[in-house]
Design a protein that fits this description.
202 residues; four-stranded mixed beta sheet; Rossmann fold; alpha/beta; 8 helices; six-stranded parallel beta sheet
Length: 202
């Protein structure tokens, strides 16, 4: 940190935050979370809402490798960055040195901590992404490995039941690829992030 006259506004803000840390959770427990809406956490509901949000479920035959599914879905891809041991790829996510390097990634493969059936969304944090959250959004296509056993019904049950909301330093819920509809009222996917988001049951 800079000192004296050289202290930046950023340094000053972080210094204040360190001085005023939040009280421990056990001293001031959080209130109970009410659960509203449909709590159905079935794979069918997740798949339906994933498709509605522009994502897709990649079919996987019994015994078929994840790498083979990805090869079939993206035959023209060149740079495949992986954050999972099941897929070798051309580059490990831990080896990304800068955002410019990530911008050249055709397909990125990650594993989601859990999925939310109500919105067809997946939860990613620094744990799954090895501290490379920004780089995921720079890839052209995102492939997500997800266990059906890790589905929860809606955002209320996710917040109540999933410990990741409390243990993650940061996290993001992604429902389908990036999209915008503010340009002449036309829906455009891949405008500010990944062009496609695909899920493979694992």
């Amino acid at each position: 940190m800079s000192d004296g006259m050289n202290m930046t506004a950023r340094d000053a803000i972080f210094a204040k935050l360190r001085e005023h840390k939040s009280p421990q959770e056990d001293a001031y427990p959080l209130p109970p979370v009410a659960v509203f809406g449909d709590c159905d956490a079935s794979p069918e509901r997740f798949a339906k809402n994933l498709a509605q949000m522009g994502g897709k479920l990649l079919p996987r035959k019994p015994g078929e490798s994840i790498a083979h599914v990805i090869d079939a879905a993206f035959p023209a891809r060149q740079n495949l960055c992986t954050a999972v041991p099941e897929v070798e790829g051309t580059l490990r996510i831990e080896d990304l040195e800068d955002h410019y390097q990530a911008n050249k990634v055709d397909v990125m493969v990650v594993r989601a901590a859990f999925g939310i059936a109500e919105v067809g969304g997946i939860f990613l944090s620094e744990v799954e992404l090895k501290e490379h959250l920004a780089d995921v959004h720079l890839a052209q296509h995102l492939v997500v490995l997800l266990s059906q056993a890790e589905l929860t019904g809606n955002m209320h049950t996710a917040y109540r039941d999933r410990s990741e909301f409390k243990t993650a330093g940061y996290g993001v819920v992604m429902s389908g690829p990036s999209a915008t509809a503010d340009i002449q009222g036309v829906l455009i996917r891949g405008a500010q992030g990944v062009r496609s988001l695909s899920v493979i049951w694992d």
